[in-house]
Amino acid sequence: MTAKQELRKAVHVNIRALTDRDERDEAILHTVASLPEWQQAYTVALTLSLDLEVNTRPLIDTALKAGKSVLVPKVTEQGLTFHEIRTFSDLEPGVMGILEPTTAETDLDIDVCIVPGRVFDRSGYRIGWGGGYYDRFLATYRGATIALAYDVQVLDEIPIEPHDIPVELIVTEREMIRCSQSSS
Fold it and tell me: Quick one: pLDDT at residue 1?
């Protein structure tokens, strides 16, 4: 087992031990909705959360009600494509059971991208599921990047590879981490 796999496994155990995830999710989503990056965004991109991730459905609802364009990624052989949704009925199960859009790909510019991850460090580096889709997308993306995480997902140090792209901000139930890549 690789170091990244071991860290994912350890963090998954810690997330499963949390008994108050709904309250933690609510605190995280409240903080994100109050961020200037979020409030000023016209177009936001985010995935639908998996079982051990902060629940993104309420944030999607908030964005739709605020009149924001909500873009959801779809995994293709070429990488991620983004598709605007207007309702949850615009989604169906895709790769790894993740809900993906049934709508056409869009060329809208993304103001804020909520970047998923399994494990993070305080410099914004992340360990995802291992496909590298987001790192490839982030290599050319120039908008704001925010990760949602439980405190137990943020470690002092994680393995970093040359192609890894950090996020700018990590929001947990207890803190907002403005990431600095200069220390890595």
Answer: 62
